[in-house]
């Protein structure tokens, strides 16, 4: 009797599984048809735009931010909102490539977190080019060889990337967006290295700093060697003996390395913020951030005078950094981020007062706020 029931249950299981597979096949066809319809609609948008303006801009950061936020708000699961947004990002990236592929330069080499940020923001259908230095990314965009650039600006553990801030001193480029990545560092080795034989560990200086306590506890006697990037660290250990690299998932895949240990960063919420730079202003998306740089006269109370209008007009500042000015000994410029778009009345009122008090103010851009 029990054998008969088991066989009967198995048949029911087979029927149910077959029906579910048929249902998936039907859904796949519907998804395929809808994506194709969306792509055709994107092509029609391109024709309309080009008829109105031969130099039309196809990529609209504020529009994509609105779409992705709406998708995450409407998502009912079981896939998490971030994963659903990633899938829609790729659909939008592929559709945009039918109109005109986005060309993006990023701080390389391949396999870095900056490349990961570029792909998160623009999708895999964008044409992404690695460059060896931050100022070269700025030059590539200024020259028109790339539509956008992707550069790191701050890490939640190690602070700001001064080279990026300094690059804004001598450019007319605008900030068009931001990407926030949760940074996970792994200890990677090649096939030539055993766990108990690691005597040297390569990584970028910031990554070594972000994993300092873990390294002290687990590899206190291993030599720590700072290199130009985590991807360069991964490239080196691919062929070396008794060495390891601290790097992320992209570098591990690119060089075919084994993960000895995962997520070895000292701070579990370790994140890095990246900026998207371009040549145009971005209209409001509904949830924006603005960045500016201000030069103050060297006088008592100058910083208070700079910040007071933001407080009085209820503008929420999220970051304040000072950098030495290039136009006078012991003079400083201030980089400020705050919530809101420069077209909002309260922001305009605050900025007008700041301009009256500062020696020079330049808005670097208003752009959709990034989310992890």
Automatic annotation (TrEMBL):
<keyword id="KW-0028">Amino-acid biosynthesis</keyword>
<feature type="domain" description="Chorismate mutase">
    <location>
        <begin position="11"/>
        <end position="103"/>
    </location>
</feature>
<dbReference type="GO" id="GO:0009094">
    <property type="term" value="P:L-phenylalanine biosynthetic process"/>
</dbReference>
<dbReference type="InterPro" id="IPR001086">
    <property type="entry name" value="Preph_deHydtase"/>
</dbReference>
<dbReference type="GO" id="GO:0005737">
    <property type="term" value="C:cytoplasm"/>
</dbReference>
<comment type="function">
    <text>Catalyzes the Claisen rearrangement of chorismate to prephenate and the decarboxylation/dehydration of prephenate to phenylpyruvate.</text>
</comment>
<dbReference type="InterPro" id="IPR002701">
    <property type="entry name" value="CM_II_prokaryot"/>
</dbReference>
<keyword id="KW-0511">Multifunctional enzyme</keyword>
<feature type="domain" description="Prephenate dehydratase">
    <location>
        <begin position="103"/>
        <end position="279"/>
    </location>
</feature>
<feature type="domain" description="ACT">
    <location>
        <begin position="291"/>
        <end position="368"/>
    </location>
</feature>
<keyword id="KW-0963">Cytoplasm</keyword>
<dbReference type="InterPro" id="IPR010957">
    <property type="entry name" value="G/b/e-P-prot_chorismate_mutase"/>
</dbReference>
<dbReference type="GO" id="GO:0004664">
    <property type="term" value="F:prephenate dehydratase activity"/>
</dbReference>
<comment type="pathway">
    <text>Amino-acid biosynthesis; L-phenylalanine biosynthesis; phenylpyruvate from prephenate: step 1/1.</text>
</comment>
<dbReference type="InterPro" id="IPR018528">
    <property type="entry name" value="Preph_deHydtase_CS"/>
</dbReference>
<keyword id="KW-0456">Lyase</keyword>
<dbReference type="GO" id="GO:0004106">
    <property type="term" value="F:chorismate mutase activity"/>
</dbReference>
<dbReference type="InterPro" id="IPR036979">
    <property type="entry name" value="CM_dom_sf"/>
</dbReference>
<protein>
    <recommendedName>
        <fullName>Bifunctional chorismate mutase/prephenate dehydratase</fullName>
        <ecNumber>4.2.1.51</ecNumber>
        <ecNumber>5.4.99.5</ecNumber>
    </recommendedName>
</protein>
<dbReference type="InterPro" id="IPR002912">
    <property type="entry name" value="ACT_dom"/>
</dbReference>
<keyword id="KW-0057">Aromatic amino acid biosynthesis</keyword>
<dbReference type="Pfam" id="PF01817">
    <property type="entry name" value="CM_2"/>
</dbReference>
<comment type="pathway">
    <text>Metabolic intermediate biosynthesis; prephenate biosynthesis; prephenate from chorismate: step 1/1.</text>
</comment>
<dbReference type="InterPro" id="IPR008242">
    <property type="entry name" value="Chor_mutase/pphenate_deHydtase"/>
</dbReference>
<feature type="site" description="Essential for prephenate dehydratase activity">
    <location>
        <position position="272"/>
    </location>
</feature>
<dbReference type="Pfam" id="PF00800">
    <property type="entry name" value="PDT"/>
</dbReference>
<keyword id="KW-0413">Isomerase</keyword>
<dbReference type="Pfam" id="PF01842">
    <property type="entry name" value="ACT"/>
</dbReference>
<dbReference type="InterPro" id="IPR036263">
    <property type="entry name" value="Chorismate_II_sf"/>
</dbReference>
<keyword id="KW-0584">Phenylalanine biosynthesis</keyword>
<dbReference type="GO" id="GO:0046417">
    <property type="term" value="P:chorismate metabolic process"/>
</dbReference>
<dbReference type="InterPro" id="IPR045865">
    <property type="entry name" value="ACT-like_dom_sf"/>
</dbReference>
């Amino acid at each position: 009797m029990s054998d008969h029931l088991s066989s009967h249950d198995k048949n029911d299981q087979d029927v149910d599984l077959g029906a579910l597979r048929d249902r998936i096949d039907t859904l796949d066809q519907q998804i395929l048809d809808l994506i194709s319809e969306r792509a055709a609609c994107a092509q029609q948008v391109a024709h309309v735009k080009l008829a109105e303006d031969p130099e039309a801009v196809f990529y609209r950061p504020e529009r994509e931010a609105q779409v992705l936020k709406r998708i995450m708000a409407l998502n009912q699961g079981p896939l998490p909102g971030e994963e659903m947004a990633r899938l829609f990002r790729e659909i939008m990236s592929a559709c945009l490539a039918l109109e005109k592929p986005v060309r993006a330069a990023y701080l390389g080499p391949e396999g870095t977190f900056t490349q990961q940020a570029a792909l998160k923001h623009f999708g895999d259908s964008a044409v992404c080019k690695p460059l060896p230095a931050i100022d070269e990314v700025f030059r590539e965009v200024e020259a028109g060889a790339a539509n956008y650039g992707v550069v790191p600006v701050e890490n939640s553990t190690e602070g700001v990337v001064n080279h990026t801030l300094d690059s804004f001193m001598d450019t007319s480029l605008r900030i068009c967006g931001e990407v926030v990545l949760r940074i996970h560092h792994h200890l990677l080795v090649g096939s030539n290295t055993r766990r108990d034989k690691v005597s040297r560990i390569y990584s970028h200086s910031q990554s070594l700093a972000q994993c300092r306590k873990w390294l002290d506890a687990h590899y206190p006697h291993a030599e720590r060697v700072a290199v130009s990037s985590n991807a360069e660290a991964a490239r080196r250990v691919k062929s070396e003996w008794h060495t390891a690299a601290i790097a992320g998932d992209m570098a591990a895949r690119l060089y075919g390395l084994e993960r000895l240990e995962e997520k070895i960063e000292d701070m579990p919420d370790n994140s890095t913020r990246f900026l998207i730079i371009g040549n145009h202003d971005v209209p409001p998306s509904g949830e924006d951030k603005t960045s500016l740089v201000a030069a103050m006269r060297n006088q008592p109370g100058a910083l208070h005078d700079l910040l007071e209008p933001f407080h009085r007009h209820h503008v929420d500042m999220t970051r304040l950094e000072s950098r030495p000015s290039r136009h006078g000994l012991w003079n400083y410029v201030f980089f400020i981020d705050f919530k809101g778009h420069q077209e909002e009345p309260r922001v305009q009122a605050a900025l007008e007062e700041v301009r009256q008090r500062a020696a020079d103010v330049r808005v670097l851009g208003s752009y959709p706020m990034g989310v992890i």
